[in-house]
Automatic annotation (TrEMBL):
[4Fe-4S] cluster binds at residues 19, 42, 45, 51. The lineage of its organism: Bacteria, Bacillati, Actinomycetota, Actinomycetes, Kitasatosporales. This is Transcriptional regulator WhiB. Acts as a transcriptional regulator. Probably redox-responsive. The apo- but not holo-form probably binds DNA. It is found in: Cytoplasm. It comes from Streptomyces pimonensis. Its main location: cytoplasm. Belongs to the WhiB family. Binds 1 [4Fe-4S] cluster per subunit. Following nitrosylation of the [4Fe-4S] cluster binds 1 [4Fe-8(NO)] cluster per subunit. It comes from the Bacteria.
């Protein structure tokens, strides 16, 4: 029996994300690796804002989300957004 996974409405934006088309390696690099390429791709992504909001709302601690690294998101949270 084949069942299709139906995306959750709050995750539907991910289908349009450029990262979904390029693979996760850029967005979850090894510690100390550059996130420059991930940020470049995020900068071109039409749903970057939704991605960042999701990461902040769900306290995503790893990877590049919405064009921001873990450290940048932490600083944004501390500043009160």
């Amino acid at each position: 029996m084949h069942t299709e996974t139906i995306p959750s409405p709050d995750l539907a934006w991910q289908e349009e994300a450029l990262c979904a088309q390029t693979g996760g390696d850029f967005f979850f690099p090894e510690p100390g690796s550059s996130v420059r390429e991930a940020k470049r791709i995020c900068g071109l992504c039409p749903i970057r804002g939704a991605c960042l909001e999701y990461a902040l709302a769900h306290d995503m601690r790893f990877g590049v989300w919405g064009g921001m690294s873990e450290k940048e998101r932490l600083e944004l949270r501390r500043a009160g957004r």
